[in-house]
Design a protein that fits this description.
The chain is α+β, with helices and mostly antiparallel strands. 25% of the residues lie in helices and 36% in strands. The strands form two sheets. Strands 3-4-5 form a three-stranded antiparallel sheet, covered by helices on one side. A two-stranded antiparallel sheet has the order 1-2. A hairpin with a 4-residue loop joins β3 and β4.
Length: 110
């Protein structure tokens, strides 16, 4: 298993769902998951998906610049860091973004 391939596959999958159907992200979180967004800490599947679906835009397009990962913890997890730009409909300029995940468990590319 190539960790970089797993991280890239996850990132591609995540942002495809985020950009087309944010409610579909529900399967990617667990009850113990936490999202920190602009200083607000949100825990649990419903809270996180609720926050993401309540953002003030309905559509967007993420353009990924970097995907970096490294092993994390004894259980085979990984830390994934992403940076890129976000294009909102009707906006001339793209917004820069970065996001990090700590993924736990065993992973495989399907």
């Amino acid at each position: 298993m190539d960790p970089d391939a797993v991280a890239k596959a996850f990132v591609d999958h995540y942002y495809n769902i985020f950009d087309t159907n944010r409610a579909g992200l529900v399967s990617l979180y667990q009850d113990g998951s936490m999202l920190t967004f602009e200083g607000q800490k949100i825990q649990g599947v419903q809270g996180i998906v609720g926050k993401l679906t309540s953002l003030p835009f309905q559509q967007c397009k993420h353009n990924i610049s970097t995907v970096d990962c490294q092993p994390s913890g004894p259980a085979g997890g990984m830390l994934v860091f992403v940076s890129g730009t976000l294009q909102l409909p009707g906006e001339q300029h793209q917004l820069k973004f970065s996001q990090a995940w700590e993924m736990v468990g065993s992973f495989r590319v399907v």
